[in-house]
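Minutes, project check-in
Item: structure for the 140-residue chain
Input as provided by the requester:
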Amino acid sequence: MDKEQHLTLPCDVADVPRLAAFIDQICEAAGIDMSTAMEVNLAVEEAVVNVMNYAYAPGTEGTVEVIAKTSDDSLTLVIEDRGTPFDPTAKADADTTLEAEERPIGGLGIHLVRQLMDSISYKRSDDGRNILTITKKWKA
């Protein structure tokens, strides 16, 4: 049984607790175990906070929408914004073998999303939206 829920947030990190509650509620309703739910929550938070911090020019208000689609064996999250075009999947993997001081700034969030989720894809829509889709399977 497929089910879809939406959450639209202003680009303000003060609203991250609303995002966490939204993801927790979806995972609980779908019967996703707590460990998997924590991984999903961390990955979604990383992706959404990146949008909140970088998608829109300073002083510009914007929103980020999270669409959650559950099926019998997976959870797909679609994160959409109308900010600056940015494809996080085009970024090279962060070099985690380097010491923290030697690493360039950025890239760890998308690295974390790649590690925690089963699939990740990006597209820019014809009407100017960034659309990041991440999926987590919880049943083999």
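Outcome recorded: The domain at 3-137 is CATH 3.30.565.10 (Heat Shock Protein 90).
No further action items on this chain.
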